[in-house]
Amino acid sequence: MTSSLPFQLIRKQFLSTSDIKTIDWTDVLNQVENNHDPCKEQDHLLKLTVLHSALQKYPIKLSYVQFFLKSLIQQLEDRGVEVSAKVYTTYCGLLEYSNKEVEEFHYRHFMIDEYIVTIKESSKIISHGTTGLCCWQGAIALAEWCLLNKDLVKGKHILELGAGVGLTGIAVTKSCIPASYTFSDYHTAVLQVLEENVEINSGSKKEGGYFIGNTPIEVIKLNWEEIGETYTNFLHQPNLILAADVIYDDTLFLPLILTLKYFLLSACEVQAVIACTVRDPNTIQRFINQLDENGFSFSEFPVLKPKVFVYSTNTPIKIFIIKQKK
């Protein structure tokens, strides 16, 4: 059965665990209600979402699935549409697990064109003493920007700072054909999950390391406060630096800026692209001031309505391209 655009959209929202409160059910419900066999349509929607094949090996958060089905049933009942027996049975089956201890990790699946990026992340915002085990809004926005500006990314040797669970880099390597991609972070638990996500999306570890497509991948531990003294013997010297949601702690501004300076001065035409969620405009401004004081110029790219990913833009996001002043 061919899936309609409303069904494709809700599948995309569900698999990436978009906020259910932001889902507009109207077109989906209209399609179900106007079909000569509403129950069959619901079963098809179930197959695209809750019973999607990707969830068998990499399940999304149980509480999310329960809330999704509860919302669907409520929407159907409010319209007076008969709820499919399979929808009810699936929902009741999931309720049996309500008292089960919450899993430490779950998965999210981001649909991009004809493929899926699968990301393992923590079920808690803070885990193992870090927030780096979750996929944040800035990482999604940065991946979106790269996919819409492939000409600026294709063929580059990319280093990502504070890569977290790896969504940006995995999406970029699958879509933009960089020459190489180096994921970096400092926290041991983050690096472990990051490497798992690289392996999930690359399929296997080949001789010489990981590859996503034909792009060679490195996962390294990098301490900004010891840049130049720690691991800087890269397989490929980076000529594009990426980072997302790393501008939040004033005490890290100088180490981050010195790290940027280290790489941007290493060769000509190296630039950095940083995406940041604006939770406090004053924090962003203080970072910009320090950039200027340390000899950097920057330009801001507008963040448009998402076209590739599905994510909330209620909290503003800024994307900066940073270069060394001439």
UniProtKB/TrEMBL annotation:
Q: Which Gene Ontology molecular function entries are recorded, alphabetically? A: transferase activity
Gene3D superfamilies to which the protein is assigned, alphabetical = Vaccinia Virus protein VP39
Keywords (alphabetical) are:
Transferase
Q: Which SUPFAM superfamilies match?
A: S-adenosyl-L-methionine-dependent methyltransferases
Q: Which GO terms describe its cellular component?
A: protein-containing complex
Asked if the keyword Transferase belongs to this entry, the reply reads yes
Identify one Pfam family in the record. Methyltransf_16
> Residue limits of the FAM86 N-terminal domain?
10-92
Q: Which family does it belong to?
A: Belongs to the class I-like SAM-binding methyltransferase superfamily. EEF2KMT family.
The protein here is known as FAM86 N-terminal domain-containing protein
**Annotated source species:** Clastoptera arizonana
